[in-house]
Protein 1
Amino acid sequence: MSTSVLYMSMSVDGYIAAPDDFLGGPEGHRLHEWFAPGGEFAELTGPAAQVMEEMGAAGAVVTGRRTAELMDHWGGDLGGRPIFVVSHRPPGPAARFGYPLVTYVTDGVASAMEQARAAAGDKDVHVQGGYTAQQALAAGVLDELQIAQVPVLLGGGRRLFDLLPAEVELEIVRVIDTPEATHLRYRVVSPAASA
């Protein structure tokens, strides 16, 4: 069975985006410089490459509408993977007509995760977006978190875990330390839904 994994870059003070939805720094992409210095994807080696390979090996993506629209639905697929967008509203024209691998799921994150797991087969489900991660934790359908903690303090913006309904116990699975980021992988031991 597939594992659902949140992949997120985060500042040391817990932010995943600045107030303007950019990722910090003068060029607006500080939180992603560990894999895309200057906004350009780099050839990664060693432990950071392992993290990116794992993310790229996922079989499907679950994301929130805000993230999907900010990224223009990654052009209709994310590396050839189907995208399931959790939303309370139907999709706009681009996602409805131009992106056959994008499915809007209006009956909740648990349904989106179920559909993504079916599409992924035995591959993992890549989870995107802060609010979607919070919903997935609350519903008990997020299995693991892969956080790239970037050595910067943004001082404000959008936090990853502002709205959890209860305490969530995590188990450390792996820590990979690189000069650009510390990659922390956690397994959800007791989800908020059962806490």
Protein 2
Amino acid sequence: MKLIVQIPCLNEEKTLPVTVGDIPRSIPGIDELEILIIDDGSTDRTVEVAKECGVNHIVKIPQTKGLANGFKAGIDACLRLGADIIVNTDGDNQYKGQDIPKLIQPILEHQAEMIIGDRQIDTIDHFSHTKKFLQKFGSWVVRLASATDVPDTTSGFRAYSREVALKINVLSEFTYTLETIIQAGQKNITISHVPIGTNEKLRESRLFKGIREYVSRSIITIVRIYTMYRPLKVFMRLGAILFGLGFLLGLRYLYFMVTESGEGHIQSLILTAILIVMGFQIWVFGLLADLISANRKLNEETLYRVRKLELDSYTLKETLEMVAASMDKTTND
């Protein structure tokens, strides 16, 4: 069983040694444990510090592409390196590396395929009351959208089995945290969560400039991903609202037409027609979107099978090369 801990980094030369040093080098049930750094266009000594810390692998992105793209690059590299379990943590030492055994235990026991570390938001002193409220409210919304019970949906401390890593497709360029949970929930992937500890804050977050930006971009991500997997429900409900409003206005117009000959209420009749037509149009859009969604699911299944075949053949090639090299060495000896 091979575990790779991936750490997305952007100018983390000061915090990286602490983060790497806190990761255990031996875990029961794990035969191989390696550390992989994703350098997202750092301009400081992050890469040099990573090498000094004894990091096993470094994925270097020439220009900063954002957290989501760094996460995708790391997952792809971990799969190619033969990881059976992938743990994602942050380079700012927010999460306790000593909690990794607890995080991966449900995967080792075949109880879950994706584990989210629950930071227990109320216990984090440096979080303001506003931030705590928004975190809880956002997690509640994501739980509704994903049909899961994850209490801390924005936590970046999480573990994935190899199968889940092959199935997850991150489309957002902002953050992977919300999107992967909604995807997993809609794909019926078994998700669990475990309580974890957090360390003292060593630096400010670089993911967003302010709470307003974070909230707005998170809302866009949630709506976008949920609509991708449940377009018929979204469009049908939206169409029903418009049709219902038009229908009620139509009844209002009929009432005034019976009681007052309808004079002076022609605007209501026009608005009624517009709302009813818009409602029907959105229902049609929902049917088309549902057909596109079904096709997308087929494409995702195809992509999963292609990636699995590609990685299996890649691993087989690596194994054969190692065997050949070992045989050459034995012959020479």
